[in-house]
Amino acid sequence: MFYWSNLLGFATTSALLISGVFLIYVVVLVVSYLRRDHYEPGDSRNFDWHFLVPCRDEESVIGTTIAYLRENFPRAHVWVIDDASEDSTGAIVSAHASRDKQVHQVRRLLPNARTGKGDALNAAYRVLSDWIHPSRPRDRCVVAVVDADGRLSRNALAACASARLFGDDSVGSVQVEVRMVNRDVRRPYPDAGRLRNFFGRTLVRLQDVEFRTAISAMQVSRRKVGTVGMGGNGQFTRLSVLDELDQGAGPWRGSLLEDFELGVHVLLTGHRTEYCDDAWVDQEALPQLDRFLAQRTRWAQGTIQCVRYLPTLWRSRQISNVGVLELSYFLAQPWLQLLGTVTYPLPVIAFVNNLVLYPSQTMIYLGNGGFVLFSIYVVIGIAQFAVWGPVYWRRTERAYGFWRCLGWGIAFSFMMYLFYLTAWRALGRVVRGQNGWAKTRRNREVDVLGPVSRDS
Predict the structure, then answer these.
(1) CA–CA dist 230, 212 (Å, integer)
(2) Backbone phi, then psi, for 395, in 5-degree steps?
């Protein structure tokens, strides 16, 4: 009993210390986020804007996306990459390009197609690079990545043209805030029952909470250390910086996290990356748990792949010491989650063991302060993520009320623990040498086509 009592105390105290340190980190994020600076918009006419839209079997959304971009950003060029689509994507894009000289179609054909989003973007970059007239200053050309279902806010170009963003010649890339376009859809499954729709719309809402609070707060804090990360949707980069990164292989590399990877390379060139939450891009959230887990497994695997850049980052003189530590912490996330699946359950395992084998002694332990220690452990484990619910209420969604947002925050804490599972799934794929990935179907495609494959 003495051994298990000590184990319970040690496990609870250790997990509590780890959780406490992370809670302090979260508090710092919350404070910096709520006190963040807002940037004055600039004149978008000072730059040439080019949207790269990678597509593979996107007939359900690509037509409306092209129309949206052309209507709201009439000076910009739209470059749609048809990655050997098997549906009518190519025909839709071709029809737009035939009647609008600012819509361009980049065709990729098998067997050289479907090799990843990075390769598709590289193909468009090469075509765009050759198309740009030599007289145009390439540092005044800005290339934006927009997903096939992406909806940039109408102020996006003016916001990115701010004197503190692309108006500053040292800034190489800018990432705008990401929001979930279907966050207010009450019935993500029109033909299903109330319980399934409740779960689906809650999962969608939690993804909106994640991107508009926790991830946005991390990006705001990264401004101070110069390590803002790039996302795959709403990512803006100077053409001249892409030229520096090209080196014959293309600016985008082979990681499953090609967006973050690009940002790392931008930093290594000595350029700054910035974050703009005064503008945003709307994208679809996933209401299905299996698709959500598959998506996050892909992101975790991409992060594991990017660990290879750690030696380069530590040797680089272009990134501050604090910046290197922040990037190292981000790249360590999957490994910390793997460790957490062993560390965090220990107090619970030890407690259950003691309660079953030594019930009377366990009750004495709880009465002598163990209950308080254990309760603090549980509360902190939830509070470190649940805090984003009230932040979400204050920052974005006051119409829903404080208590509903607090409920979303508590649910968000449980969603975050799913990432321990995706970390193990990602490691399994790495060990098995599985580096490819199938396209994630749009929600309307799932409704029409039925269940998705585990890698979608």
Answers:
(1) 15
(2) -85, -35
* Residue 334 near residue 302, CB atoms below 8 Å: no
How do 272-283 and 151-152 pair as beta strands?
antiparallel
> Does residue 111 have a cis bond before it (omega within 30 degrees)?
yes
CA atoms within 13 A on the CB side of 294: 17
List phi, psi (to 5°) of 89: -55, -50
Place of tokens 């719309």: 201
Largest CA distance in the chain: 84
CA end-to-end span of the chain:
49
CB 177 within 8 A of CB 234: yes
pLDDT means per 10 residues in the chain (456 residues)? 51 62 78 86 97 95 96 98 95 97 96 91 96 95 96 97 97 97 94 95 97 94 93 94 91 89 96 96 95 94 94 94 93 88 70 73 71 69 85 84 94 92 95 77 52 35
Q: Across the strands, what pairs with 174?
A: 236, 274
> What structural domains and CATH numbers belong to the chain?
2-30+343-431 (no CATH), 42-334 (3.90.550.10)
